[in-house]
Write a structure and sequence with these properties.
By secondary structure, the protein is mostly helical. The chain has eight helices and no strands. It is elongated and about 65 Å long. It starts with a helix and ends with a helix.
Amino acid sequence: MPESTSVNQAFESAVNANMGRLVALARSMMGAQSRDAKQAEDIVQDSLLKLFRLRDSYDWSNGGWSLMAKAVARTVISCRRRRVGQSLDADPAIYDSLGSEDDPSEAFSAAETTQKLRRLIESLPDTWREALTLREQQQMGYREIAETLGATEAQVKTWLHRARVRLAQGLQDRVDDTVEET
């Protein structure tokens, strides 16, 4: 019994320490318009419930972040596959940090660039956006992303490359438009 109690305590500690990050991960992977925080929380809760049922099978001594993040990512992917065609939510925390500047004279330009980048990220194909989120926001390695998304490392690298190229091209188009206006 003491081992079961320590597993329960380790699981509870891991959940408490990572809940905010898990919800942010779910929201950022979901993409697009509605920004329904409750849906992200439901996805995290579903993921954690599945892990709770198997908690004795895992080692929680490292804080559990990687395991929980993978579970949330897989649940988001499953949810998206079940609801093909529906627009899901994106994490505003990612976007709020994009383009922030200390110089007030550049605030307007930064806000426009941020909005453009938001639209570009939201317009990425789901797999590209998910891979980009896991790599850039969650700092996952290629192998870990591949395992999470059920792809090969080569495919993950391709998705990331294509996502970055599309974002760079979109931002370059904005710069070109700005230069033409002046």
